[in-house]
Design a protein that fits this description.
The radius of gyration is 14 Å and the shape is globular. The protein has three helices and no strands. Helix content is 45%, strand content 0%. It is an all-alpha fold. The N and C termini lie far apart (49 Å). It is found in: Mitochondrion. Belongs to the CMC4 family. This is GH02741p1. InterPro entries: CMC4 (IPR027179), Cys_alpha_HP_mot_SF (IPR009069).
Length: 76
């Protein structure tokens, strides 16, 4: 019966496709949408087929990666 349930991360996957299409496949223009997908997959990766291939360790938001950057250099 699990095939009748909706994939909890499918709306995020659709948002990624829409954002990438709108922005000519420039991933840097869709970082917030990509991060929302990662967050969904952190919660639902066992139930969501859309999460296959998502790197749960990779953050997409620059602010989050700055926190992990010990050099103190700005990413800009």
């Amino acid at each position: 019966m699990s095939d009748t349930r909706k994939d909890p991360c499918k709306p995020n996957a659709c948002r990624i496709q829409a954002c990438l299409t709108k922005n000519h496949y420039q991933e840097d223009k869709c970082l917030d949408v990509l991060e929302a997908m990662r967050q969904c997959c952190l919660k639902w990766h066992k139930e969501s087929l859309c999460c296959s291939g998502i790197d749960l360790e990779k953050t997409y938001l620059p602010d989050a990666s700055k926190e992990k950057n010990a050099t103190g250099k700005s990413n800009k």
